[in-house]
Amino acid sequence: xxxxxxxxxLGTIIAFLIGIFAVPIVIAFSRKNNLIDVPNERKxxxxxxxxxxxxxxxxxxxxxFLLLVLLSYYPKGQGLSAIIVGGSLMxxxxxxxxxxCLNAKFKLFIQIxxxxxxxxxxxxxxxxxxxxxxxxxxxxxSYPVTLLWIVGxxxxxxxxxxxxxxxxxxxSISSLSIGIVSLVLAPTCPINALMAFILMGxxxxxxxxxxxxxxxxxxxxxxxxxxxxLATLSITGVVKVSSGISMYLPILILAIxxxxxxxxSTRRIxxxxxxxxxxxxxxxxxxxxxxxxxxxxxxxxxxxxxxxxLLSIIVVSxxxxxxxxxxxxxxxxxxxxxxxxxxxxxxEN
Length: 349
Hints:
This protein is mainly α. The protein has 13 helices and 4 strands.
């Protein structure tokens, strides 16, 4: 049974309303101070567009949380301080990058440092479900596994932020799914679901100005911040409070960004280049080059993400979790197969 509290509903609405008013202010500020994204050979937009969408997203989430506290809805839960502190630090690093363009290796170093702080504050993946026996206790391996997950998801969201409305749509759907799954798995610990719903509300407001043709971009500040929240909330709200096959649900929920970062990183390593150096060969770029419009591409990938989200909710709501999870994995493989065939078909035409 999924039970939304008053705080969940209020948090979503407040974050959306603050975002609706915050985004135009950020757009005006960016234009006045020339903090805009200039087109180049790697980018597909043509106008000079604000790249500080992360400021509006972070402000909407932070102010919503503060208002909920003032309204006596202060939520207590595991990992709250780590999520707030780590998320703000990740946003700040992304904001500096949006303004000054930091070196890729330096950004990775800072991300590792922030993730280390978060792990010391208690957010860690400590066990793996083993369908053939007892759960696997990671021990010291908990740190590299958690590091890989948080840094990987954080950058995965940044990687898919390549066309208008794509990253925002994926984040909105994923945060909704994490919020619902968290409510089912840990109804007595509402903080994870609350933070997920607040993120969804803020992102939906941002999308009102980000769909093609976009008036504002998420920027590294928004993409890294949103990716960090998804990564940490998936640990505290799903992995650490679930048992059995359910602890693997974040892989299903975040299937699209995970597939993209796995594909992009593998391709770059094979070519002998750094997996963190930006290029124009992500999955969405491939589909664009194959002839799909931005609007159709966002609809396609967001639709796949929605299917994964619905499957994750079915998995956590049914007793036959192993069977449903197996079907979910087959579904992800089918999505990969469909994507490859769509690209091939468009290129042949």
